[in-house]
Amino acid sequence: MKINEGVEWAAHCCLLLNWMEADGPVSTARLAAGYGLPPAYLNKQLQPLVKAGVLTSTAGKKGGFRLAKGLGDITLMDILTAIEGPDEAFKCAEIRQAGVWADLPASAFRAPCAIDTAMRSAELEWRRALAAQTLAQVQANAELQAPGLRRQVQDWYAAR
Amino acid sequence: MKINEGVEWAAHCCLLLNWMEADGPVSTARLAAGYGLPPAYLNKQLQPLVKAGVLTSTAGKKGGFRLAKGLGDITLMDILTAIEGPDEAFKCAEIRQAGVWADLPASAFRAPCAIDTAMRSAELEWRRALAAQTLAQVQANAELQAPGLRRQVQDWYAAR
DNA sequence: GGAGGGTTACTCGGATAGATCGTGTCCGAGTCCAAGGGG
DNA sequence: CCCCTTGGACTCGGACACGATCTATCCGAGTAACCCTCC
């Protein structure tokens, strides 16, 4: 039960892409350099975001990634599902249907597994909280805590 | 991001152990037979629960596992942390401290990473929901949906 | 000067290895029960 | 009849393979910009 680090990378990149929006597409190499990440692997992590409609990619010279929509329309849930896939973390294997319960009539399984229900509802709380957090809010918090950072990052990239 | 199936196994076993409490310890072989699981692997999954103080184990003939406390004192969170470990699913690697941010003064990192904060708070919601669910509640729901099941299971084990 | 074509350099995207973690199995140390013998 | 010893079988616990997923890298198809030539 460990979340791919690509989720963190993607979130950071989205925030950065928003800051760099005026400069056109940003290539994987530039993004990776900003965070000290392996460029090729970062590229691989960003690809599912393109498929999910969070980013758009353009090839060729001066190509790179760009936000497909505003930060307010992107939630942490979007990023997670794009990279981790749509499946839930807890997967009920219905082990109760074997052994002791194998001889029971099928009607006994009409009701869902109580454990599965409890685990699902808890996980739903998590996903609900993730879906409630837009990247716009996250960025607002970040800029609130470090007001000059945005300009500093833009300058660093401009001089590169 | 996939939860070990051992979590589901452990939860089911705890409920079963509660039903079989009067019969003394239940061995791994009997537990596994009840769910059609590989006995040795189930044993391996239950061991951390003993270390966590959820179960007690006794060796030798007529040995096996037994609940260390009442179902009301065991939460889904206990089981999860016992098997998955205490670490959180989302681990912030502080990638913001490399590249662009490498030259910034240390004071810039006094404030926590905004992404980390948002992810953590969402995950906390999940853990809070898990900690609020005791196995006693889960079992109550299960027995409510299938009233005769408890007796049926006890009989199956008694005849074995 | 402007337009068109070719070159070039750079981009993403997917196909290909290595590392880490989850899954499954096996055997040994320890222990409890039971039976048998002696008092 | 009761107690102690001895044997045995069964248990958990950890050490040992296998497989899948995550991590990391490489190379190729494609494309947009640029430059040079020609009109």
* Spatial strand arrangement across the major sheet of chain A: 1-2
**What is the CATH topology of chain A?**
Arc Repressor Mutant, subunit A
- Most extensive protein-chain contact, per-chain counts: A-B, 61 and 61 residues
| CATH homologous group name of chain A | Winged helix-like DNA-binding domain superfamily/Winged helix DNA-binding domain
What is the overall silhouette of chain A? Answer: elongated
* Count of the separate structural domains of chain A: 1
Can you name the CATH architecture of chain A?
A: Orthogonal Bundle
Quick one: CATH class of chain A?
Mainly Alpha
Oligomer: homodimer
Q: What distance lies between the first and last C-alpha atoms of chain A, to the nearest angstrom?
A: 39 Å
Strand content of chain A: 5-15%
| Share in helix of chain A | 40-55%
Cα-atom radius of gyration of chain A: 21 Å
Please report the number of helical segments of chain A: 7
Low-confidence stretches of chain A: none
User: Mind describing the biggest β-sheet of chain A?
Assistant: 2 strands, antiparallel
Number of strands of chain A: 2
Q: Could you say which structural class the secondary elements and strand pairing of chain A correspond to?
A: mainly alpha
Give the H and E element order of chain A: HHHEEHHHH
